[in-house]
Predict the 3D structure of the following.
Amino acid sequence: MTDPRIVPTDVPAMDTAGGGTADQAPDPLRLCIFATVALLGWLLGPLALAFFAGLGAVGYARARRAGLLRSKCLLGDTRLVLGYLALLVVVAIAALVVGFGPWRLW
């Protein structure tokens, strides 16, 4: 049930690009997220790469099974994106096992 005192023009307009209302400055939340992911990558090295690439691969595999054939990713085709993410997982595991970085497991 709607409140008769609320007129549709009283609802602030949403700025879909920035996430705030039309009279507010946009919230650059994505930049904060990117910085946090970069920090985790810097601190955790190949472990972070393997985790995030694996998480992305699982997400794209589910989306592909649900019917997504084209992605907003630069690679476009979801098969290419899945191949790229799988390659990143392999490189991250190789970096941990073989040790082309300071993050060797053994």
Q: What stands out?
A: The mean pLDDT is 77. Residues 45-106 form one domain.
